[in-house]
Design brief:
The protein is α+β, with helices and mostly antiparallel strands and 210 residues long. The protein has one domain (32-203): Lipocalin (Beta Barrel), CATH 2.40.128.20. The chain is 22% helix and 29% strand. The protein is built from four helices and nine strands; from the N terminus they run αβββββααβββαβ. The chain has helices at 4-12, 107-117, 123-135, 177-189; strands at residues 45-50, 61-69, 73-81, 85-96, 99-102, 137-142, 148-153, 165-170, 197-198. Strands 1, 2, 3, 4, 5, 6, 7, 8 and 9 form a nine-stranded antiparallel beta sheet that branches. A hairpin with a 3-residue loop joins strand 2 and strand 3. The radius of gyration is 16 Å and the shape is globular.
């Protein structure tokens, strides 16, 4: 029997909101506040919804936790699954006006972990994905209770479907309907339209080791 949450996630996989911007226009990042990382250290966030972007086919589910403040932004630990599990720490640096970018010095390490995650497959696609991730700019939207959203665009702002990333994370791998609704409504209030797909986090055994 399909639960209410799983049914909603399935429906969201097929629902597209009408966008006021065409794919040939500039990638839009909404106004956002600087993330209050001190409210996140003891939390874990599981990917529940994602766009059909360059990461979607490779990073099927993600858990973020162990948030820590740094002098220029924050760090976190990501546990991911593509072909196999990987777990690694990486960092975001704050540019101001709610915008972050991944720390450049993490690039080689992140790429090595993603190659390991894909078990040596699709090397060119992994390079392309990591170039987007490490060189992009991102904002974080959250109410620190129901959802944590990451929105990322290429640094030059140009739009292509594969290079416009939105991921919705929730405090459990099987979020309830109200948490998903709060996430969708937060995007709607900012004028953000997207077609979402459900991750497989709810099917994942998070006790699995690398």
């Amino acid at each position: 029997m399909i639960s209410g949450v799983n049914l909603l996630l399935i429906l969201l996989s097929f629902i597209a909101w009408t966008s006021t911007a065409s794919e040939s226009q500039i990638c839009y990042l909404p106004q956002a506040m600087e993330l209050d990382v001190e409210m996140l250290p003891k939390t874990s966030w599981y990917s529940g919804l994602h766009t059909d972007d360059i990461t979607a086919s490779m990073l099927s589910y993600i858990r973020l936790n162990n948030f820590t403040c740094t002098a220029s932004g924050f760090g976190l630990v990501s546990k991911e699954h593509g072909v196999r599990y990987v777990e690694f720490e990486f960092h975001f640096e704050y540019d101001g006006d709610g915008i972050y970018h991944p720390r450049k010095s993490d690039a080689e390490y992140i790429h090595a972990e993603h190659e390991k995650e894909m078990n040596g497959l699709d090397k060119e696609v992994v390079v392309d994905m990591d170039n987007f991730l490490i060189n992009g700019k991102a904002v974080f939207l959250t109410d620190y209770k129901n959802y944590l959203a990451i929105l990322q665009c290429p640094r030059d702002g140009t739009v292509d479907k594969e290079y416009r990333l939105i991921r919705g994370f929730f405090p459990s791998s099987n979020p309830d309907l109200s948490q998903v609704a709060v996430f969708i409504n937060a995007l709607h209030e900012m004028g953000i339209s997207a077609k979402f797909y459900a991750s497989t986090c709810s099917e994942t055994d998070w006790s699995h080791e690398k």
